[in-house]
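Morning!

As promised:
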Amino acid sequence: MTNIYRQITLLYLRYKTLMVLTAFLALGAAGSSALLWFGYLRFPRCVIVEAREEAGMFLWIFGVWFVMLLGVFLKRQFATHRAHLLPRYRAAHVCAAFLVFALFLSAAAAWLLTLPAEVVATPWHVLWQLALLGVLFLVFAVYLGYLSVELILLLAFLGISVGSAISWDAFGLLRVGAGGPPAQLPVLASLIFVSAALFMARLMTLREEHFEYPYLLTWPPKELAKNQARVYGLLLRVEQAIDLLLRGEVFLEKVFGKRTCGPRYPAYPRHRGVVARSRHWDCFESRSLRHLQVLVLVATPLYLWYLKANPQVHIFFTGVHENFFLLVAAPILTALCFNYKKMGYWQRDMMKPVRRRDIVRERGTALLIALFSFWALFALYFAVLPSIVIDPALLRSAMFWAHLALTGSYAFAAFSWILFLSCLSVTNVIVLNFIALAGLSLAQTYGAGAFPLNVLIATSVLSLAAGAVFCKTALMRWYEKEIT
Amino acid sequence: MNNAIVTEGLDKGFRDKGVLKELSLVVPQGSVFGLLGRNGAGKTTLIKCLLGLIRPQAGKIAVLGDDPWDFLEETKERIGYVPQTDRPYPWLTARQLIDYTASFYRHWNHELTDRLMKEWGLNAEDKVGLLSEGETQKLNIILALGHEPELLVFDEPVASLDPASRRQFLKTVLEIVSDRPCTIFFSTHITSDLERVADRVAVLKDGRIAFAGELDVLKEEIKRLRIRAAGVRLEDFKGEGILHREVFAHEAILCVRGYTPDIKKAIEEKFRAQLDVEDLNLEEIFLELTR
Amino acid sequence: MTEEKTKVYFRIAASSGVPIYRQLIDQVKTLVATSALAPGTFLPSVRQVAAELAINPMTVSKAYSLLEKENVVEFVRGQGMKIRGTAVSQEDLSQRQGQMVPLLKEVIVRASQLSLRPGKVMKMLESLWKEEGSHE
């Protein structure tokens, strides 16, 4: 039995991504502890006040990444025939995963408890929430990796609603403020245990026929296309049900216009501009776009009503136009996820009768359009619409729009930087670049709140320029790169 | 330009492993050319280099007179490619996938693709993701044939097809070859199919082409000789043309290349032996050449 | 008036050591020698043969052109390959004998396995031949 655990430990140690993240977390925690204990007396008060919120935020963001990677790792171990045929395999892996998670929580606890009281007033509060959300995210990571983007958005929407319903002060889930543990502690505790137990039980008896089996399958683009087929069986039935419910085709066509792609697709528009040509590559996507449009149509009034009816939620939206995660990271991640599955087909597309440069340019354009659309969606839903409901005066202030503009242009710059990174091949250079990007983004997050108007505008312009440069360089490099 | 594919001095490696080394190959127009090689010999790598999907470290390639890395649109319209295992766009129906692919080409024969779908038993309204492996491969083949290209490149096209479907595929390919001038290049290890259909073969070994030429010539040149004589020793049989030799008590088995009837006479005289000449089929030739 | 093309049943073993074109040539020659293909009849077209046997049409045309070279058939414009009226020439004798040798060797091997003496086998051959001859 010990040999099994030794082998599993080795397996984890060889999972480089997880190890890198663990090292990053450990260094961050140790470094910040050291800084705070030895230097905090000399730091001005405002830094401490900032740090108070950010200890929790730091654990939240990076902890969630850690747990999601753990989930992906677990997913790969379970959706194989080995899970069923090798003796003691499942038990050992599940135990190992929970041990790792427990280790992570203990490390987080050790860190939180060593921080000075001014920084973290109620460490146990944070820990409980981390544990609960950690388990939930572990489960989500295992099952979620595959779904189409509209389902992810739907689930995110539901998650946010559920989250704000659970805690009486909106998003108090992560507020490290004054006050004792939340009143809903027993609820949280039982949620943790029940979900963990259910998850473990299900994993122990996982079979191919179980409906969730295909969702656990692996990610790399080569496998992706094969596995999508199995997942799509279920999703197709859901889509058909939606269509039937809405009896939607006629109505949708009246509202959104006729589908661009009918049984015979229009010819590739060789003589039109880059944008028209880039849209042709995905002309068969109209179906999922249509569902997204339905979602939007149905959800908007509900959303506005919900905002009006729940004033406690308004706290979340104060300062949301500066919110880095929501308006920069989320659109980038969503745009990448939306196009990730298409990357599997790029090689096949190289054989279509379009010149290599044109293909690269058009695919790039499609990515940028996706980024812009998602940013606009997030900005509209999380900044503009709530402001209309909560505080219309905001919409007249230049700062609001300047902040929004900054998030947009910074998102463009960061995305282009990522596109540029995708053509590099030396790992060290990539890591350095990535650290630089992360550092700059963090600085932006903290600094943007304090910028005056002209600095905001200047930074926006700078970001747009930097983004353009990265895009152009990435384009040049992709012309010469093998597409696999 | 009477060669569909010409490549010289091709070098391709991944990280520190060389796969293709100074490879040279010529595929004349109008031929049905088979590429044989063991697993991992680099057949797919070679095909991908020829189509500009990956970039060789050295060497010149000309496909239909054009440089593959940056094919002109017109050249791409004249090429059809069926990759090894590929399950494209699982959520589309077969019909939608064909229409989507057709939208890129200036010329597409819808009547041909419809007929092939019917003949090969594919339902146009089936979702691609739910097709079996064999059906997917058939669909891939139809997608490559629709724009009636001059050069067809297949990478193990029939690996997932049952014998009946393979025969159908061969018949269709041969029909195409008789209807219009077309060059077919395919890699496979089903040697029996190659024997029916190919007029030229090339064997890929150690990153180079060990043999390239007409299949009939290959069969006539490579023979197995069974020499029965007293006191034969291994050292007696040396020479460049000998691919393999084994010596038993009173018998030696030689596999030679470049066989001519004179050799038979020469050996019979030299060893005062009885010589049986055995014809080898392509599978056995392949085994001998890639030992 | 177009000559009817005879239905010829070729049997080829694609995976034998003998090239397909050679098998076709041998079979045509055998059919001519046994008068299954009378002089003046037309061989089926290249396309037909290739389609039926699922082989490359170029192999069939190679066989046909070699047969033409050896004067077994001649090409009639617009109609195809016509079997020549001339009898098979003596130059082929050694070739034809060469084809018999492996068969005869097999007979010898089998006879010794079955412990039959040469004289016995020869007598059997003669009587069987007479029987075949009487059916013609």
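Chains C and A do not touch (no CB pair under 8 Å).

Hope this helps with the figure draft.
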